[in-house]
Amino acid sequence: MKRKITLKTLVEILVVSTRLGITSFGGPTAHLGYFHEEYVRRKKWMDERSYADLVALCQFLPGPASSQVGIGIGVMRGGVIGGITSFIGFTLPSVVLLILFAILLQDSDLVNSGWIHGLKIVAAAIVAHAILGMAQKLTPDKERKTIALLAIVGTLLWQTAITQVIIILIAGLIGYLLYKGTSTTEESNFHFPVSRRFGMICLTIFFVLLLVLPIASEVTSHKWIAMFDSFYRSGSLVFGGGHVVLPLLEREFVPTGWLSEEAFLAGYGAAQAVPGPLFTFAAYLGAIMQGWQGGILATVAIFLPAFLLILGTLPFWDALRKNPKVSGALMGVNAAVVGILIAAFYHPIWSSTILRPIDFAFAAVLFSILSYWKLSPWIVVVSGAVGGALLTL
Length: 393
Description:
Order of helices and strands: HHHHHHHHHHHHHHH
Radius of gyration: 21 Å
Number of helices: 15
Shape: globular
Oligomer: single chain
Helix content: over 70%
Distance between the termini: 56 Å
Largest sheet: none
């Protein structure tokens, strides 16, 4: 049954995604934890299996995985307009902050401040909570626990941009071999109100822009087209999340003289200190080069591939996941996703956040507030910021 999309639905998507955009610190893995807590546990907009399937798909696609998950949830809730609304809510807070920072450009040590460290500890607690919930549902038997374990080992020992994609492919093959005769009785509320025809149009636009923009940039030598081309290619060809795109952007703009190494590093520190997706670092770079208009252009260009890919692939993914032959492979893939999240929980979240016994104690308190006392995530975020500031005194 198709869900009627109303203004009330779109406003609800905007409010929830904006709240996440203001409070979601800690990088892409932490964002998936925040999304799981809000969309699966609290709002119940989707079930565990559908969420895991969406995360698995976004791990395959280049670009910002957490932003693509957010866009996908928005589309399933409110159509294409819902996806745009979800993206704006989650992304706009950090875009505005980074454009303002670029305009003011001053030395900042925010990334090393106590309250930022507290927010990193919050992210650790949120991710731990999400992993436990997903593991209970997605790795219930010995075989899938083993797949998750192998995913942890592979992700930690072989840290490359394509590791996650290869692990998911292998896990899918193992899942197919182990569970191809198994039928799942678990209901799923996965609903994606976009046709395959629209999906094909989006994929066509994605590849056309990828081919045409470099040619247009070379032929016209227009600075705005060259900027759009550089940011679009960065968003199209990067696997592994926001941290991987940073060196690519550095190679695009620093050696060519578009901005200085000092300005690049200052923005990098600021991007680490704001909530939301790390890809919004592009807004800072664009604003440094061409003012606030450049910041908006860079943001649109670097996130446009994520939109086109998620809208282009999900209609086909929805059909595939309903195929009994694919369901066994997805059982293996979802187990691998749990393992990948656990590996990312250790590095970089745990290894860069839990540095002292008091950090672990504080993380345990925040985890208990979230898991056992069932308080809202925003209360956990505020508590983390205040507690982090007090820990430095």
